[in-house]
Specification:
Organism: Lentinula detonsa
Number of strands: 19
Pfam family, one: FAD_binding_3
Keywords: FAD, Flavoprotein, Monooxygenase, Oxidoreductase, Signal
Bound molecules: flavin-adenine dinucleotide
Protein name: Salicylate hydroxylase
Structural class: alpha/beta
InterPro entries: FAD-bd, FAD-dep_Monooxygenase_BioMet, FAD/NAD-bd_sf
Radius of gyration: 22 Å
Shape: globular
Strand content: 15-25%
């Protein structure tokens, strides 16, 4: 296959995934990032089977990491009543579902990338591509036609293809939208803020209550749902740590709000203790009390799914959160980022390997075709998943009342598409976790979440309907007009 020089902007999970995926096919990858050194937020990340199998293929050695294998998702009311348990079996989707410390994951990805470092691979039998990572390299300008990028240090980097993996506040996204003459698609506030907290698990392990000890010894992701907020907890590093994510609406956040221009803020646990003191079950109050200082994040998303990921030049594409930022409620953000990278690799391979390249008019044409194929294989899937994070957000944060009672009833339905939890339907779960992003051209999702059917990563079947939103009058986000934005009539 003809190999390419690829410039990747951003060395987050998206940038590293792209580098690993493309270098495996012999491409020369140059990764540029603003950061001075790699430091990851102290938090956990759930790595579902659809991305776990990609990491393994890219040579990321998860075997060296202390991690957990998830037993499943559990949904509990704020009064601690278990409403729904959705177990995962280890081998159902060809890879396990892991709970991992983010810094352990990024470190393992970096170690895998080091094997492609130029000076090592040139003389090894690997015969693979190369990865060069440059930190302290903020990209401040794009030449979409060359294609190339200029860093704040004044250097120009040019290649055959530029992959923009610069995260939710992407510099290039608006330029790409404008180049297509599409209307602006700004970032909008989701109404929620997320607290990411890690605590030592030992106090939980010493608790006289077996249910509390089991939070650590039996690795479920437990979701406690209540008015205008929910908490998710799961163990990490073979039971050394307990990861807590708390999502609350801005208006019920007790601490100093994360300002308009800010994305994250340090806070201490007094505001959490205060926020959850009334009505919440003892275990949630206990978890809040165990936290020290932590970081809280404003959650934003695009006004609507992005129609165009690729610049009209056909040489520059978005990838990862820059193209599809989503709320963390399905724990799929990073997984979708990794799927993007796998799909990009497959699309390039399909257009640049022997026959296709001979038939095409030029290398540029082949790259442009590959990017179109990549976008079409990714846009509908990521939009569908993003949409479901919005559905779940509304159900998770209901006040007690008729809608919440209906939610609790629906959540008790086993393997039923009316259950608002995405994973509760086997067909939806198969579609999500059984997806093999390396296979280009899998099933697409129609407008408004309607399925149009197709193959689901070899397992066969149709993409099911998304769960419905709760009744509008029960929404805790009345001013947000999500339904209006998404064109939902009922
Ligand atoms: C609370 C929370 C919990 C989450 N939990 C999960 C989970 O359990 N599972 C899951 O799959 N996902 C989860 N996610 C989502 C996941 O973290 C993101 O989807 C993923 O990390 C995005 O990766 P990225 O590389 O696209 O973006 P980023 O991580 O934002 O990386 C972008 C990189 O680009 C660099 N950069 C930016 N601008 C420039 C520039 N101009 N020049 C050079 N470099 C630049 C930045 O320094 C950064 O390193 C969670 C998210 C949140 C907020």
């Amino acid at each position: 296959m003809r190999t390419l020089t690829v410039i990747v902007v951003g060395a987050g999970i998206a940038g590293l995934s792209t580098a690993l995926a493309l270098a495996a096919d012999g491409h020369e990858v140059i990764v540029l990032d603003t950061i001075k050194e790699f430091t990851e937020v102290g938090a956990g990340i759930r790595v579902p089977p659809n991305s776990c199998k990609l990491l393994t293929e890219w040579g990321v050695d998860l075997g060296l990491i202390k991690k957990e294998v998830s037993r499943g998702n559990r949904f509990v009311s704020w009064k601690d009543k278990v409403l729904c348990e959705i177990p995962f079996s280890d081998d159902e989707f060809g890879a396990p579902y892991h709970f991992i410390h983010r810094s352990d994951l990024v470190e393992a990805m970096r170690k895998a990338a080091e094997k492609y470092a130029k000076n090592i691979t040139q003389n090894t039998p690997l015969g693979l591509g190369t990865i060069s990572i440059f930190t302290n390299s903020r990209v401040i300008e794009y030449d979409f036609n060359e294609p190339g990028v200029r860093t704040s240090g004044g250097e120009w980097y040019t290649g055959d293809l530029v992959v923009v993996a610069d995260g939710i506040r992407s510099l290039a996204r608006d330029e790409i939208i404008r180049a297509h003459h599409h209307p602006p698609n700004p970032l909008v506030d989701t109404g929620d803020v997320a607290y990411r907290i890690l605590v030592p698990a030992s106090p939980l392990l010493q608790d006289p209550d077996l249910t509390v000890r089991k939070l650590v010894t039996e690795p479920w992701a437990t979701h406690w749902m209540g008015p205008e907020g929910h908490a998710v907890g799961y163990p990490l590093r073979e039971g050394e740590l307990y990861n807590i994510i708390i999502d609350v609406t801005h208006r019920t956040d007790r601490g100093k709000s994360v300002g308009e221009a800010e994305w994250s803020k340090r806070a201490d646990n007094r505001e959490l203790v205060e926020r959850f003191k009334d009505g919440w079950c003892p275990i949630v109050r206990r978890l809040c009390g165990m936290t020290g200082e932590y970081v809280k994040w404003k959650l934003a998303e695009l006004e609507r799914p992005l129609e165009c990921w690729v610049h009209p030049s056909g040489k520059v594409t978005l990838l990862g959160d820059s193209a599809h930022p989503m709320m963390p409620y399905l724990a799929q953000g990073a997984a979708q980022v990794m799927e993007d990278a796998a799909a990009l690799r497959a699309a390039i391979f399909s257009q640049l390997s022997g026959h296709s390249l001979e038939l095409s008019e030029s290398l540029e044409f082949s790259i442009s075709s590959a990017l179109s194929l990549y976008q079409s294989s990714r846009a509908s899937r990521t939009a569908y998943i993003t949409r479901n994070t919005q559905v779940l957000q509304e159900w998770l944060h209901l006040y007690d009342g008729p809608a919440q009672e209906e939610r609790d009833r629906l959540m008790s339905l086993r393997n039923d598409e009316r259950n608002p939890v995405f994973w509760a339907s086997e067909a939806r779960r198969d579609w999500l976790f059984g997806w093999d992003a390396r296979k280009i051209g899998q099933c697409q999702v129609g407008d408004g979440g309607k399925h149009v059917g197709g193959d689901i990563g070899g397992k066969g079947g149709k993409i099911p309907e998304l769960p419905l939103f709760p009744p509008p009058e029960s929404s805790v986000y009345p001013g947000r007009d999500l339904r209006g934005r998404l064109g939902i009539v009922s």
